[in-house]
Amino acid sequence: EISRKMRGHRVLEILLPSASTRLSELLDAHGEVTDHEEFEGLYTVNFLGDNEALIELNRSMVEAGIPLISIREVETDLEEMFMRITTGAVQ
Question: How far is 46 from 44, CA to CA, in rounded Å?
Fold first, then answer.
């Protein structure tokens, strides 16, 4: 919770067996996704939504037939949080 407030968004990692055009299109169209990158089936997603929006994103992936292996929220490490606070990046 603290790290999300400091970043202003969540960072999600979504793992698939391989890259998926369907997932890229779904993420591009999702209102709570601000950016995403893919490398060998691992998608890193900047996500503005709350838990309900995350549940809906997960449901959308399943309904689209996307073969999801895992989805998790990436935690911010203490050094990154310290640097953001001391450089004034957090309000």
Answer: 7
Alpha helices in 1-91, H assignment, sequence order? 2-7, 21-29, 51-63, 78-86
Structure-block tokens of residue 78: 């203490």
Is the entire prediction scored with pTM above 0.85? Answer: no
Interhelix angle 51-63/21-29, nearest 10 degrees: 140
pLDDT tens column, 13-53: 999 999 999 999 999 999 999 999 999 999 999 999 999 99
**Half-sphere exposure in the Cβ direction for 23 (13 Å, CA):** 27
